[in-house]
Each structure stands twice: as C-alpha cells, then as structure tokens.
Amino acid sequence: MTILDAVKSIETALPDAFERAYEFRGDITVVVNPAHIVEVCRYCRDTDGLRFDMCSGVTAIDYYPNEPRFALVYHLYSMRHNMSLELKVYLAGDEPVVDSVTGVYPSANWFEREAYDMFGIHFNNHPDLRRILMPDDWEGHPLRKDYPLGYETVQFSFNFDEVNKHKPYAKE
Amino acid sequence: MTRLEDSQWQGDLEQIKGLVTERALRGETMVLNMGPQHPSTHGVLRLLLELDGEEIVSCAPDIGYLHTGIEKNMEAKRYEQAITMTDRTDYLNNMGNNLVFCLAMEKLFDLDVPPRAQYLRVLLAELQRISSHLVWLGTHALDLGALSMMLYCFRERERILDIFEMLSGQRMMTTYIRPGGVWRDTVPEFEPAVRDFLSYFPARIDEYERILTENPLWRDRTQGIGFISAEDAIRYGCSGPTLRGSGVNWDIRKAIPYSSYEDFEFDIPLGQHGDVYDRYMVRIEEMRQSIRIIQQAIDRLPDGPFRSNNRKYVPPPRSELGHSMEAVIHHFKLWTEGFRPPKGEVYVRVESPRGELGCYLVSDGGPRPWRVHFRTPSFMHLSVLPHLTKGHLIADVVGIIGSIDIVLGDCDR
Description:
The complex is a heterodimer.
Chain A: H1 3-13, E1 18-24, E2 27-32, H2 37-46, E3 54-62, E4 70-78, E5 83-91, E6 97-99, H3 108-119, E7 122-124, H4 160-166
Chain B: H1 4-7, H2 22-25, E1 30-34, E2 46-52, E3 55-62, H3 70-75, H4 79-87, H5 94-109, H6 115-143, H7 147-168, E4 177-178, E5 181-182, H8 190-212, H9 216-222, H10 230-235, H11 240-244, H12 252-255, H13 276-299, H14 318-321, H15 325-336, E6 344-352, E7 355-363, E8 371-375, H16 377-389, H17 394-403, H18 408-412
Antiparallel strand pairs in B: 1-2, 2-3, 4-5, 6-7, 7-8
Helix pairs in contact in B: 4-5, 5-6, 6-7, 6-13, 6-17, 7-8, 8-13, 16-17
C-alpha cells in the first residue's frame, strides 16, 4: 500500500474526521478534525496496510494573528511499510483544547507537555500535563508569537542613564 | 563527599504528589533527589527517585535546566544566521545538526546539492558519529568505574576534532554544512589526515573491546540491566542504537536514505536482549561501520563544485565579485535581506549518533523561518527512563542513563 492509498483509506473509513490532504515536496499532510484525532491515530496504528506504529513527535505552530491560530502536527511513521505521514489539527486561538493521543502513542507524552508548556495548548486526558522545559511558576507560553523574544538594550554613553534605570540593581 | 541526607528530599511531600507513589507520601519509601549537578547525569538532568531500600519504585526526570530557547531564537533570525544556532543544540553532533537543518532548508527551497558536497557531508557525519560515540563510551565506562576508558576515548576524539578544525576553523561549533553544499572546499591536508585516522582507529576499537567486552565486571554491571522489548521501544518512540539494541532493524540511513547514503555499503548492527550491554555492543559495532563508510567516501570523493550554483540561495564565490556585477548584486541581496523561500512546511529526519533527529521547518515566505522544531532523540529517550529504571538498583541508574546516550543540550534545546 502506498501512502496515497493510505490517505484514501483514512478518507473512506473516517469521513467525519478527514478534512483535506495535501502534498508539499513529497510530505503528505492530512488535516483532521480536532474532535476525532484520537480516533484517526488509532485507525492509523491498527489498520492493516497502514500500521503507523511510531509517533516520531508532536509539535505545534502558532499562526498568529490568523485564525485558526494554532496547529498541531503529528509525525507518524510506519516501520512495516516504510512510509511517513503528517497529521495536522487546527485549533482556535482563544481556547486551544484537544484530546491527548498518549493512550494510542505513549511517545506523544512529553511532546504534548512541551506543546502545553510552549504554546498553552491543553490536552484532555493527558496523564501528567505539567510544564516540562520552563520552571513550574513561569508565566506565559514562550513560543507564542505574541510573546516577546526579550533583549537587553545596548548601553552607549548617550543612553547610559536611561538604560541603567531599567537594570535590576538600579531599583534599590 | 556528599552525604545521603543531603540528597534526601527535604521539602513538602505534597509538592511532588503525582510524581511519586502513595507509599512515599505515607513515608514507607524514600524520595531521593539526584542531580542536577551530578557527574553521571551527563549534564544538568535532575531525577526524582523513589526508593524501597536500594530498589527503584518510580523515577521522574526533571529537564529544562539547559533550555536556551533556541527554537524561539531561530524564528528571529534569517535562515543563514539560524544555522549557527543548530550547532549549539546537540554539542556532540554539530555536523549532524547542521546537516538536518540544511536538508530541511534544501527540501523547502528545492535546492540541488552537488555530489562532492553530498559525499563530504556523509564523511563528516560519520566522523561526527565516531566522535560522539567516543564521548559516550568514555563517560559511560567512567560512570561504571572503568576510569581509563575516558582518557583513551578523548585522545582519539581529539584527532577527529583536529580534522574539523582543519576544515572549518572550529573544533566543535563548525557551521561547516551550509544550504546547497558546504562552506568551502577541503584543504590539501584533509585527505591525508582522514586516511591517517582510518589506519589508526580500527585497532583502537579492538583495544576498547579488550578492556570492556569480555570483562566480567563490565558484564555484571550491564547485562540484563535496563531492558526494553522491541514492541515497547517502538511504542515509546525509541530510535537509533537504543532501538537497534532491542533487535529492531531500523536505521534512517537505510530506510529513508538522505545525502547519498544509498551509495554506500554498510551493515546495521543489531542487539538481541535490549539491555545496556547490547546497546554498548551496537554502538561499538557502529563505529566500525562508520569507518567503512568513511573509507568508501574518501576513496570515491568526486571532484567538482562543493556547493550549488543556484545564486538565489547560495552566495557567489569571492573570485566572481571582482568582475561580475550580477554576482555583487546577489551577494548584496543575500547578506542584507536573505532569501525568500516558498511557503510550506517540511519534515526531515536523519540518523544522528543518538537516534532519529528530525527537523520540522515552517516557512511563511519571508526571510525568517516561521517555526523550527527539532525532534531530538535525547528528549525522546529520557521520557523512556522511568520505564527502563523500574525495579532496578540505584547503582544501575547511572549505567542506564549512560546507555541511552543523552545530551542535555539536545534534550532541552
């Protein structure tokens, strides 16, 4: 079964979940309805001819200021058939919530925690949804596009005092 | 000398609820904090271990101490500037990180790479694999008490870093691989240095094996420890030697060949038991296979250009700048505004010394990447650590951490 047959098979078996599919430089991406992501993952893993047994990773994209703002991408790989597939889910910006796929792919556990930490996307039924890279008491989600990169102004003689005022030690 | 009491969890047990079992909250088991400044955690990894006597009941890795926001920083840099950041993620696999990011860019731009550059990339990636495995072997053996291995391994690694310095001017942060090829052509001393290394190194691998492979102490500390079955390894997303130690024949260099790996002959070493010892044997054998690949690459290194001739993405050679107006314009545009790739998203995976290293690159058509994500093997393998350590003794934890070969820079990015 080729990858195109695999996409066709997802489309016919789960018409509610399948939204569209596209190809770019040989990478096949299937856009999936967020309500059905677990169902699609289970279908991809368990169906003969697909057998996407490995989830290489899950990552998020922030399309700010466009709506739907967030996208989650699941990189699936089939050892038996040596083919890879990207599943993509679009999420609304005000309240990004999606079901966790850790029940199907345990390897998604830490990647979903990373997406929660960096983008503030919530995963229902995740066994351990905590921040992973940032400290527990961190505010904000750093990889969002409206989160500033943060920098220190270069101090020259003409703006010495002005920059000095903002430095932490100057507050005392 | 650290006393045990210093490492014991002093804080409120309520804070770590959910990370440890109910038994720890009742005070039946002991909660021990290992790291982040512990020599055998290979960097700044913190483990929250729950112990029943010497046996591990649960293990909760705590990462992020080396998080430097590289993915966020890359979004603020132009593509050609962002390459330098990739070196700083996995600091034992600099060439491999350059390679995966450049392959992702080339896939996005649809850029050709001349054969000479492809062979050079393979050659350097394999040298890097050997040097990374040498650091792994040295530190892994050091953790388990074979102190002298570290000195031997770092001695040989230095010869590889000398070759990198010869080519790129840097021992570690090379940024030698660029979109469309490599930074510059090889120097005349390069080929003799590689051949010298090839004639010198295989005997050194035998030497390491004489020290460790049949050593009863080494076997006692590694055999039957940190077992993972083939099914679990796939389910948990293991790759590289960790996966092949469990007997799964999957190597990205063979399964999805990139950068002309299909031209080379090499075997994929496999383990059977999926324990620390088998992962050790797989990596030792991988070094021999890398030697084979390097030998073929240096023998068949084609002549010709070392980078693509596509002026939209690759800067013109300096010799053209003096007499070609067009070259000056391209040079100026490339270094002031960068290039504008098509809109799209690509995912590229390569076989790093640790396993599957993936790069997911999203472009919005501007000169800066919209999103770069690195799917790193250390991150994945650390998430398997609780599964690997369960039921083992605390002394085996250091052996298991060593066997999955983590680099915290790779993990935290």
